[in-house]
Design brief:
This protein is of the alpha/beta class. The protein has a single domain, classed as 3-Layer(aba) Sandwich (Rossmann fold), CATH 3.40.50. It has six helices and nine strands. A hairpin with a 4-residue loop joins strand 8 and strand 9. The mean pLDDT is about 90.
Length: about 220
């Protein structure tokens, strides 16, 4: 009950920021343009926290799943040789492409629209998959809500069922998750599907703790 209340408060705050917040923000020295239907990368801990703590090696091939504004793809693209960014929200795809162009990374980053791995028809292999999945309990009814809700952890289950087909043998997943949405449950789902994890970083806020986990095949 207490966790559900925390989720309700967090969702309300997110929607207020999305509605009333600025449409152009600066994060870690780079500018991002967004709309009310594209996750704001400045006013939530998750975007900056993941950008600061992801581990990308020079020349890596990277997949940014659920790219939103494109912040993780752009951060990864400063080192990677190639980044593919995917989002199910068509408006997020539009703004991610704008932000990629504004940061002059069009030759490195490609942005695609689609549901999880479906756009990857040629099944490329990646060194790293970046993922900040939606973790609130609920059913998305609008495009933006795909960034918030994962009903009964169905999406994260699908993700871990499919991700292994798109990783190099020594590749990894770097994923952010929150204490207000049962990270132990998410980790058990991953383990059952053949993944082991280590904790890369964590950060505590007033309402929750954010974790970044690194997953590799068992």
């Amino acid at each position: 009950m207490f966790l559900r209340l925390k989720q309700f408060i967090s969702i309300w705050l997110i929607k207020m920021v999305q509605h009333f917040g600025p449409r152009k923000v600066e994060v870690l020295g780079r500018t991002y343009e967004i709309s009310k239907d594209v996750f704001n990368p400045k006013y939530y801990v998750t975007s900056q926290f993941m950008s600061k703590n992801m581990t990308i090696s020079k020349g890596d091939v990277v997949l940014d799943m659920g790219t939103g504004s494109g912040i993780q793809a752009i951060t990864a693209g400063l080192k990677a040789s190639k980044v593919i960014a995917i989002d199910i929200n068509p408006e997020a795809v539009t703004f991610a492409r704008k932000n990629v162009r504004a940061n002059k990374l069009e030759t490195v980053i490609s942005v695609m629209e689609g549901d999880l791995f479906i756009p990857l028809k040629q099944q490329p292999l990646f060194d790293t998959i970046l993922f900040t999945p939606p973790y609130m309990e609920g059913m998305p009814k609008k495009d933006f809500e795909h960034a918030l809700y994962d009903r009964k952890k169905q999406l994260i289950t699908r993700f871990f069922e499919e991700a292994g087909h798109y990783l190099k043998p020594d590749g990894c997943i770097q994923m952010l998750y929150s204490s207000i949405s049962g990270p132990d449950h998410a980790l058990k789902i991953a383990e059952k599907l053949g993944w082991k994890h280590t904790l890369m970083a964590h950060e505590k806020t007033l309402t929750e703790i954010f974790y970044i986990y690194k997953f590799s095949r068992i």
